[in-house]
Amino acid sequence: MERPPNLAAAIESAAEALIGVLDSATSRHTVSVSPTQLRVLSLIVSHPDTNVNRLAELLDVVPSSASRLCDRLEAVGLLRRVADPRDRREVRLIPTTAAETLLRDLQERRHRAVQAVLDRMPNRVQHELLLALVAFSQAAIATAPQAGSDSAARTA
């Protein structure tokens, strides 16, 4: 089967449209949190027992930059630093209830925004899109660079 010559451009255009839908849902949120801070919170929630060094690795930044991001989140009540009970020298990053509520509300808002777009598409096209997205994700995972590869200058 031959690939249409503009497939990559169509995917890029669809990705931009999706980003616009997600950004619109995010911008209607009342809490003033930057996209980077939202990413930090999401990483901490999805990686329990994360410390600043691990967060820096996940963000691909230097630890001092990750620490400053945590300082800001802690100052607005979205993050706590807690001594690890197994090793008191380690400090774990714990999202507060407010952070978990913020992320849950944001996820629901984004889901509704994407669903509103999908609802304007025929069911058959939605199903084809699902199959294509699953195949795209699998191909992207298969070609992703190995974890732990070093990058040049890492700052946030």
- Terminal CA distance: 43 Å
Task: Output the helix-strand order.
Answer: HHHHEEHH
Shape by Cα distribution: globular
**Radius of gyration of CA atoms, rounded to a whole number:** 19 Å
Which structural class matches the secondary elements?
Answer: mainly alpha
Tally of contiguous helical segments = 6
In round numbers, the mean pLDDT is 87
Number of strands: 2
Query: Largest sheet, if any?
Result: 2 strands, antiparallel
Going across the biggest sheet, name each strand in turn: 1-2
Fraction in helix: 55-70%
Low-confidence stretches: 147-156
Strand content: 5-15%
3D architecture notes:
- A two-stranded antiparallel ribbon has the order 1-2.
- It is 62% helix and 10% strand.
- The protein is mostly helical and 156 residues long.
- α2 (35-46) packs across α4 and α3 crosses α4.
- It is built from 6 helices and 2 strands.
- The termini are far apart.
- 13% of the residues are buried.
- It has helices spanning 7-27, 35-46, 52-59, 63-75, 97-118, 123-143, and strands spanning 79-84, 87-95.
